[in-house]
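Subject: design request, 562 residues
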């Protein structure tokens, strides 16, 4: 097959331009990205071999190797992992499948100045392409485990890349960066300096569980096997005591497993001893991913068994409403061959899930007590997801209710907890009132609100589709009913004297003719017309029966195709 020259997809091209002209000052992170990819590739190969012993691949010395050539000004990161097939290279490297990146580019176009752009690059991360921050040409040679033919990919980061088959590619992948000309002004960014490489690896990739080796310069010149140096300590952070590990180290692990460039909001450690021993290191991200509510959002944490990576996205370890939690769980007593199907039914896994769920919820609770601002960020980003738990996890319902906060007529911007709502309830008010709708504004303009506003009764303003569902499922909080102000008859004046009752009856009689006529006219669409005391300004409003679906819920079910 001859060399193919292919065009980068539009988004990929934009991203590359950005990297080439990068204003991002922390260019060192390109190495973290390449090492992170190499480490993933080694994990994948180890696993593939475990699943299929017949796979033609050598797993006896899995490692990452960094090779510097000062004269040629190249830096090579090599792994003997899973590798990529010819088609995969085109798909994975030539296009941007990750839709988060599209969002990133969009925001970038909107960022007016260089400082804004820099902030964005720091937040999004661009994986493999970050090599173009420091190199004017990148060559990748790879061979997929079990295949005989390899592939060479080259690009100068402009509009095209080339692909060609190679016959003698070793197992795994090597990425060679042809570094940009040295900047005599800035020795700090000399990536041909072993000292510099050592420093970057120590800072960003120390916890990587595979050895990252560096060959001494000119090692390839003689026939003897060169003495290499291992740059990382390979210590699993979750197995080390809290005092031994710095926050920065935890954050780097988070960035590696979450493929996020930003620091996490919170780090959670759990060491479970006893009959079923496990260690967990979980992270609450600081930002909700854009695809959290899509069907193909990958959830779950990494599962290790005694320091050996077993699988990504192990969904059995956390309930769906905690799908944004990232991290590592290392279990002592599972089989290395454990499969997803087995995990779903395993009693121990079930126990672990319960412990982990409680731990995450109690961490958020602590955050709420100790750091309102952080809790506020958390709830803004993940509250909507967490509320799903009110419906799906009755065991933890009270714990989740205690963590939840809601917009309310009490304050324009500050949300309230149910506890504070109850503390503010008026004398004689028995229930907790809420109204659901598409936005705060549309709810506040609803005629249902009039009587409540007039009487100064607080109403929770719920705008997430899930609010309909949980409010119904939960029913009450601390003995107080949760009641939609749009449903059934709400008699706000029940505590007033009896005369109002008699008055209403009389009014009903007086207006019987009008009500009957209205009912006739609207017969197709309504069940009943009645006089109401809940309106003060609007002449009429539509309410649903206490047991009916509310309009938002109807919409939601319709959207789900039911
Ligand atoms: P991400 O790692 O977030 O998926 P990257 O841009 O870093 O994004 O890499 C894109 C994809 O290219 C990876 O998901 C992986 O499938 C593939 N890839 C990159 N580097 C390697 C490697 N060293 N070995 C095997 N596959 C790789
Ligand atoms: Mg990557």
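Subject: RE: design request

Done. Sequence follows.
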């Amino acid at each position: 097959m001859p060399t193919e020259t292919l065009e980068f997809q539009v988004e990929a091209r934009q991203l590359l331009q950005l990297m080439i002209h990068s204003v991002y000052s922390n260019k060192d992170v390109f190495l973290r990205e390449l090492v992170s990819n190499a480490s993933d590739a080694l994990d994948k190969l180890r696993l593939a071999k475990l699943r299929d012993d017949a796979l033609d691949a050598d797993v006896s010395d899995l490692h990452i190797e960094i090779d510097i050539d000062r004269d040629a000004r190249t830096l090579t990161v090599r792994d003997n992992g899973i590798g990529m097939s010819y088609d995969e290279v085109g798909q994975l490297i030539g296009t941007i499948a990750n839709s988060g990146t599209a969002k990133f580019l969009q925001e970038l176009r909107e960022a007016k100045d260089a400082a804004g752009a820099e902030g964005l690059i720091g937040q999004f991360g661009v994986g493999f392409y970050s090599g173009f921050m420091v190199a004017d040409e990148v060559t990748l040679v790879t061979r997929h485990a079990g295949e005989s033919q390899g592939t060479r990919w080259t690009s100068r980061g402009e509009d095209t890349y080339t692909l060609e088959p190679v016959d003698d590619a070793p197992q795994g992948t090597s990425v060679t960066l042809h570094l940009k000309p040295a900047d005599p002004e800035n020795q700090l960014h000399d990536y041909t300096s072993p000292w510099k490489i050592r420093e970057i690896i120590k800072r960003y990739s120390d916890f990587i569980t595979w050895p990252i080796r560096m060959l001494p310069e000119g090692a390839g010149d003689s026939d003897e096997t060169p003495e290499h140096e291992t740059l990382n300590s390979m210590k699993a952070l979750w197995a080390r005591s809290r005092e031994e590990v710095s926050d920065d180290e935890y954050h780097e692990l988070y960035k590696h497993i979450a493929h996020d460039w930003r620091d996490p909001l919170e780090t959670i450690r759990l060491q479970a001893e006893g009959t079923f021993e496990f260690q967990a290191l979980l992270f609450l991200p600081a930002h909700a991913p854009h695809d959290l509510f899509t069907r193909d959002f990958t959830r779950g944490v990494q599962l290790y068994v005694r320091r050996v990576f077993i699988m990504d996205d192990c969904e059995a370890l956390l309930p769906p409403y905690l799908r944004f939690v990232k991290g590592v769980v290392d279990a002592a007593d599972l089989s290395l061959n454990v499969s997803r199907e087995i995990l779903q039914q395993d009693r121990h896994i079930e126990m672990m899930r319960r412990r982990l769920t409680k731990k995450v919820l109690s961490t958020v609770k602590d955050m709420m007590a100790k750091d309102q601002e952080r809790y506020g960020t958390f709830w803004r980003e993940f509250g909507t997801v967490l509320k799903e738990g009110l419906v799906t996890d009755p065991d933890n319902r009270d714990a989740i209710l205690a963590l939840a906060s809601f917009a309310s007529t009490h304050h324009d911007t500050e949300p309230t907890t149910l506890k504070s709502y109850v503390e503010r309830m008026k004398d004689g008010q028995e229930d907790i009132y809420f109204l659901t709708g598409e936005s705060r504004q549309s709810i506040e303009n609803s005629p249902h609100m009039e009587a409540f506003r007039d009487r100064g009764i607080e109403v929770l303003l719920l705008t997430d589709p899930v609010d309909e569902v949980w409010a119904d499922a939960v029913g009450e909080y601390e003995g107080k009913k949760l009641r939609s102000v749009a449903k059934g008859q709400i008699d706000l004046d029940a505590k007033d004297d009896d005369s109002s009752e008699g008055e209403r009856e009389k009014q009903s009689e007086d207006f019987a003719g009008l009500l009957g006529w209205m009912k006739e006219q609207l017969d197709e669409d309504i069940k009943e017309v009645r006089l109401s005391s809940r309106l003060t300004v609007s002449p009429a409003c539509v309410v649903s029966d206490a047991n009916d679906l509310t309009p938002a819920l109807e919409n939601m079910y319709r959207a789900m195709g039911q």
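The chain is about 35% helix and 20% strand.
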